[in-house]
Amino acid sequence: MPQNQSLALHLPCGRPSIFEKAACFIGNQAHNRAPGIALVALLIAGVVGCAHVSWGNSGPEAQSYYYFIKSNYKEMAHDDEEAVKNMAKASSLSQESYYLKLEAARLYSRTGDSASALRYAQSAIDLNPGGTEAQLFAAWVAATSSNWTEAEKQYMDVLRLEPGNLEALTYLAALYAETGRPEEAETAFKRLVTVEPTYLSYYYLGSFYAKAGRPKDAISAFETSVKKSPEFTAALTELALLYEQADDSRSAERSYRALIKARPEASMPKARLARLLLKTGRKKEAEKLLAEVGGRAMDSTQAQLQIGLIYLDQSLYNEAAAEFEAVLKEDPSSDQARYLLASALMEKGEIIKAREHLMRIPSTSDLFVDARLLLASTAHGDKQLRLEEALAIVISAAKLRPDSPRLMVAEAMLLEELGNLPKARQVINEAAKQFPEEAEIQFRLGIIEDKMGNKNASIAAMKAAVDLNPRHAEALNYLAYTWAERKENLPQALSLAERADALKPNNGYIIDTIAWIHFMLGNDHKALMYLEQAVVLSEGDPVVMEHLGDVLSKLGRPEEALDAYLKAREGGAQNQEELNEKIDKLR
């Protein structure tokens, strides 16, 4: 706008507030020099509203505005800590400002201070109990900090004010699903599709059913979603995968073809459809689709490699081996085909042939390390002989490829299995010097130190592994479980275990760690809920069974606890003496 034009954004009130006047002033002064500031000022004028104070007033309202502007500047400079301090001052000087309370809540949530964010959001709610903006924000803050009770309360308050509020319905349903309340979640999702029967609402319902292990209901919901929006690719993808799982090849093919039509540039639906066509014996059609993947023509060897990989994925090892052999006839130097052929031959039980192919992959190949590690896994004889042969293969390979941290890790692991812990530690420490950025090396070092009884050194190594790779689920879980066993840093341990669970869901050992931490924290019923999952996922691991017995015993269910202890003993639990004592007490 021209520099001499005012910002006409007066909200309904007797006269412009100091906020509006100052926004107008800053906008006009800064427009030519800094258009971004003018835009901020424009937003301020619209958001802050009427303060019923005249321009030039030096009282609390003017001071409040000063801190508000300062907070905005600090936020634009990415200084969130100063931004929140100034916004809190602005809010305290203008006690009746709903928007300042909400802005303070927003900034506190940005800095991770959920308690303060909730406090300011509640102040905003108190100032405007008939609105829903603050309630929705408070619910979101509570949910992100796992304060499910507060989040549910806020969403329910919103729905009392606006029974058809889509955001509240959607997130409340998701909250119920997240906290293990499937009946309430289903009711909320069904209410959502009643209030707003759109393709997205049915997609949410279908996703809930899919996660709940109800494929028929999921298919029905996704089909409705697709009917309402035939090119909605997320629902089409879910449908195709569910049809595949149900062995409904015709419906899966129809869904994949619809996906390809909606997204002709995407490779996933073409590859999945090719896989499906191969499964039903339509190889020519599959080859044609694979040739289109990536938007470029595939030569015959590339197509055969892809088809062979699909056969491997489907456990059709004879067919896979035939494809890889055909590639080697055309191109004897293809290390990829040779490696994959060896993999297929191993699955067929033709170990000698597999070893011959693996030995032919040269040390200069990118697949050499993988080939030697796979070759080590083919060692035969009793356990001692297998381990010694595998170790010899790995050491020989490491001499040819001293640049491979994976070979050094494998050497340390084999030494560890052979019971030579000092030598294993020596190898892994040398690896840590050569490859200081490798999280896996620190992880293995932590395990070795733990086995040698050096708990503090183990914890230090696990921390280093997590620092190097915050997504190393095994290191996160190991560190969390170690702390739980020592009854140390339990809240932090729970956070680490939950991160590991998010990275590797449905892992029985990680879920057992979460359960054990809850038990240490005194959350016995929650621990039992997790342990019941862990027992199934770990296939009755003796440590998990013993944990289940401990929880059941504390909950006053001795017969079930005894049964769990007996199964732990039968499963080969290491601490037999301690376990026998627990069993004797319950008999």
Entry keywords:
globular, 587 residues, mainly alpha, single chain, disordered N terminus, 75% helix
Structure description:
Residues 1-56 have low confidence and may be disordered. The chain is built from 33 helices and no strands. The protein has helices at 18-30, 35-48, 60-76, 80-93, 98-110, 114-127, 133-144, 148-161, 166-178, 182-195, 199-211, 215-228, 233-245, 249-262, 268-279, 283-292, 300-313, 317-330, 335-348, 351-359, 368-376, 383-400, 405-417, 421-434, 439-451, 455-468, 473-486, 490-503, 508-520, 524-537, 542-554, 558-570, 576-586. It is globular. With 587 residues, the protein is mainly α. Helix 3 (60-76) runs antiparallel to helix 4, helix 9 (166-178) runs antiparallel to helix 10 and helix 14 packs antiparallel against helix 15 (268-279). The relative contact order is 0.02. The longest helix has 18 residues, at 383-400.
Short description:
With 587 residues, this protein is mostly helical. The protein contains 33 helices and no strands.
The mean pLDDT is 84
Give Rg in angstroms.
31 Å
Structural class: mainly alpha
Query: Helix share of residues?
Result: over 70%
Q: In one word, what is the shape?
A: globular
Which spans have pLDDT < 50 for at least 5 consecutive residues? Answer: 1-56
- Cα distance spanning the termini: 86 Å
Number of helices: 33
Biggest sheet, open or closed, and with what strands and sense?
Answer: none
Strand content: under 5%
By DSSP, the count of extended strands is 0
